[in-house]
């Protein structure tokens, strides 16, 4: 763009400026009203053509442009910086419509400013993507520009729970675990959009997953209402997660439904387990939990049923208990990443309802374990009380977020 502007008295007439802008012979401009009305298209075309090349993104007074023409696109060239909104600015006149389309066919939505001069995309430009910009002004002028963003040197990915189109219990949080560290937590959290069918309010909370990875969970203040439909729209494409984390290069979605209100109540001191549905007890069984006084004790607090794993091989060395056991175990229901399950334990029958003598799990008879396994669903809370425990389930050891007060959980948001 030229830094000097002619004085009002020295400025050429509108028709002269348009002739110089297009660099067409004077015979190409019949002196008719129709030609004058069509001229803004030539003006905008020249300006946008100028901003589609070059490195600054601003139209200047080059050999193919008249003085004072100025439209700019903030991202230009073949290695534009991703992670920024796209801005299209018209120095004079007003924009009528702008579209920014990615090479794969997706479009960036955006808004024109109140003065009509600038259009800004609502989302940022993604890495390694070719974009086409098309603009029209209120006088009928139109043209296009193009740019490509630099590719991501490192890509971050994530895993989501629960899975798409599943039905889960009333304590199941939305849980997002990231492959690489997330330094820009606020930017990531702003891109995670939760919607519910019952207007449920909740909060994201950042924590360290049991695997050591960064994780963010979303939970309501209280357990979900049965029948609630939940959708997560993770609009992450183009978000930089920070040093050592890399960029997201796609969006993610998941949706699930909350099932019946079921709660499993576990009393370590009474050695009993009961299942309540909609507030009514539907099962009560004797059990034996972890041996108190050491690493074999069970956890207390609210643990959420993570998975129903059926018959699995349980080996003590995988949970740091040496060679204490190596068994095939039926009706296995995982409660923590650290290895606490509810399951059938017929070898411990002499202690059911009498004493806690397991290696940390909640053991029952085959028939009781089968009955419980058949009725519980992933996401059901196990509310574990009693003195014979080694501590409270941590928020990253499975889904332990319910063991924090609502205020403490909200404080873990990056947007607090």
How would you characterize the overall build of this protein?
There is one protein chain. By secondary structure, the protein is mainly beta. The protein folds into three domains: 30-148, Immunoglobulin-like (Sandwich), CATH 2.60.40; 158-259, Immunoglobulin-like (Sandwich); 262-403, L,D-transpeptidase catalytic domain-like, CATH 2.40.440.10. Helix content is 12%, strand content 36%. It contains five helices and 26 strands. It has a six-stranded mixed sheet with strand order 19-18-17-25-20-26, with helices on one face. Strands 1-2-6-5 form a four-stranded antiparallel sheet. A hairpin with a 5-residue loop joins β13 and β14. The longest helix has 19 residues, at 33-51. The model is unreliable at 1-69 (pLDDT under 50).
Q: What's the structural blueprint in terms of helices and strands?
A:
Layout: H1 14-22, H2 33-51, E1 71-73, E2 85-90, E3 95-102, E4 107-108, E5 110-112, E6 118-124, E7 130-137, E8 142-148, E9 158-161, E10 166-168, E11 174-178, H3 185-190, E12 192-196, E13 202-208, E14 214-220, E15 229-234, E16 252-258, E17 262-267, E18 272-277, E19 280-286, E20 298-304, E21 307-315, E22 326-334, E23 341-344, E24 362-364, H4 366-375, E25 381-385, E26 389-392, H5 406-410
Parallel strand pairs: 10-16, 17-25, 20-26, 23-24
Antiparallel strand pairs: 1-2, 2-6, 3-4, 3-7, 5-6, 7-8, 9-11, 11-14, 12-15, 13-14, 15-16, 17-18, 18-19, 20-25, 21-22, 22-23
Helix pairs in contact: 1-2
